[in-house]
Structures are given as structure tokens and as C-alpha cells.
Amino acid sequence: MQSVSDLLEQKKFFKLVCGAGNEDTESVKRLVYVYAKAGCKVFDLSARPEILDAAKEGAERANADCLHYCISIGIKGDSHISKAKVIFSNCIQCGTCARICPNDAIYPPNIIDEKKCIGCGTCKKKCPAQAITTYEKDIDTKNILPELVQNGAEILELHIMGHDKRDLENKWEIINKVNPALASICIDRENFGNKEVLSRITEMIKVRKPYTTIIQADGIPMSGSEDDYKTTLQAVAMAEIIQNAKLPVYLTVSGGTNSKTMELCRLCNISPHGIAIGSWARKTVKRYITLQDFWNNAEAQNNAILTAKNLISSSHMVT
Questions:
Q1: CA distance 72 to 186
Q2: Which residues does residue 73 pair with via DSSP β-bridges, in sequence order?
Q3: Distance CA 311, CA 315 (A)
Q4: What per-residue confidence (pLDDT) applies to 78?
Q5: What is the DSSP-derived secondary structure letter of residue 296?
């Protein structure tokens, strides 16, 4: 069995991001089943025990017993712990939000399924009546994380894009006390300059041994809706900043990642240890896994698995 560190060292680390806010157990079960069948070994999950259980059920259906699970949490102000909410007094019931939601979390004209909402903010940005806001749905980090690690989670990932330093320090302390096999720090440049990014990372990794931390360089979080170079450009640029700092960490790239990411990395002499793909990985198999008869539809399953295999094969740094 290859450990997570083995996959990182060999630069064959591919992580399927089910969505830090995705609490839809059936969706997670199907995603893990498809990508495990396709050869994916690492899965990023919402910090809920029932979601880890759903992932394990998907793995069992795929006869995959050598998988690794990453649990994602966010600090206050981070979109990964956000949920959309309709301001009904402003809503004109145009149905725009339902049509454009990438996770099918909104039912016409304006009913939001909280479990499916991943906090991407697409509906809020596109609403013509400014009738959507967001709220934060956090977890009991102190109690839930130890339970998840005990039940098989090997990586705990903290998204630190918010400005609440106290919450960051508190959750990072909890993660280190729980002492997972690997801790992961996910950061982008939306709110910080390059110096602040490196300052935060450098300070956080002081309490950890070399190469027990993954830095997930997030280009533009939850932005991988297209499969082109422009979409993934910021992910590669963010990875370059971390690579140039020569820190004793593993580097993975995320945020707008797609089948072009590793190709662009090679062209730019960026050599991350792995890649995490969420939005594009989910989108590319969506038409198959959302079928009502998915579990009884061999053709849909095979098509989804083949699609996932093609994405994974494009995403290894070493070919």
C-alpha cells in the first residue's frame, strides 16, 4: 500500500476534492466510487463523520481498500465554510440562481439545499436582484477532528484565506494536537500579497517537522469550471511562489485546476508534488453520477470512470 507521503514523493498525488462544504452523502459516495475505480487514492471531504462514512461506502462499492482521506476545515471569513441564503424580500423568483448553481443545490425558484451548497458564491454574484447572501456554518473542531482521525482520516487541511487570526491559531493548534499523519495548509492570494502568504506559512510550519506539511497553493478557489489554460493560470502562479520559497514542505496545486494544469506547470518549470481538483473533476462526471439510476446503470458508471481516468492520467507530474 502506498502511503500519502509515497504518492507525494513520487509526484503521483492526485486528490479528488468532493467539496469542503459538500454534505450530500449520496453525491460523495458516487464521486468516491467513480474516482476510486479510476485510480484516485486521495479524497478531500467535508468535516462531518457521516461524510467520511459515505466516502468509505463508495470505496467499498469500488472494492478499493487502500484509500486516503483528507478532511477540510476553514477559518472564519473563508468561503469554504460558507452557505448561501436567500433574502426572500428581495427575490424576484427569476430562477437564475437555480440554473447556474454548479452543485445543483438550488431548486427553482429559490430553495437552497444546505447540504449540497459548497459556498462557491456563484449564485450571489449572478443574482440580478441581490437577493442572496451567505452565512458561515462552522464545526466543533475540537471534538470532531479527533473522531475523524480515529476513524481513518490521515490529512487535516486548514483553509486560511480569512482574516480571523485568532480562529486560525486556535484551529491550527487543535490540528497539531490531534497530530494527523500530514497537516495541510490551503492558501490563496485573494486577500494577501505574496509576502503575507509566505509569512503565514513560515510561521505555521515552525511547529511541525520537515515534510509533514502539505502546502496547497490555491489559485482561485472553486473556479475550475472550464478546461483551459487561462482557468488554471493562477493556480500555477501560486505554486511558483511556494516553490521559489524552498520550504521543507510538500507542494500541491489547486484552485482552478483542470487537465491543463500539470502541462502548464511543466512549461513553466514548476514541479509540485501533486494536484487537487474539485470543480472540474466533479463537473466532468456530473452528467453520469446525477442519473437517478446510476447504481444500476453500468454504461453510466463505465463512462464516468473512463472520464475520471483521463483526468487523472493528465495530472501526474511524472508520466
A1: 9
A2: 158
A3: 6
A4: 84
A5: G
Burial of 318 (0-12, 13-18, 19+ CB in 10 A): exposed
**Are both 264 and 125 inside the same structural domain?**
no
Same structural domain, 64 and 150: yes
57 in Cβ contact with 30 (< 8 Å):
no
Q: Which residues contact 83 (CB under 8 A, 6 or more apart)?
A: 21, 112, 114, 117, 119, 134, 135, 136, 137
Contact 20, 72 (CB under 8 A): yes
pLDDT in tens, 238-295: 999 999 999 999 999 999 999 999 999 999 999 999 999 999 999 999 999 999 999 9
For residue 21, is it within any domain? yes
- The residue from 136, 160, 179 where one domain ends is 136
Among 100, 119, 136, identify where a domain stops. 136
282 DSSP assignment: H
What is the structure's pLDDT at 318?
Answer: 53
Query: What is the three-class DSSP state of 263?
Result: helix
Q: Using an 8 Å Cβ cutoff, are 250 and 211 in contact?
A: yes
Please give the residue range of the domain that contains residue 59: 4-76+139-313
Give the number of domains in the chain.
2
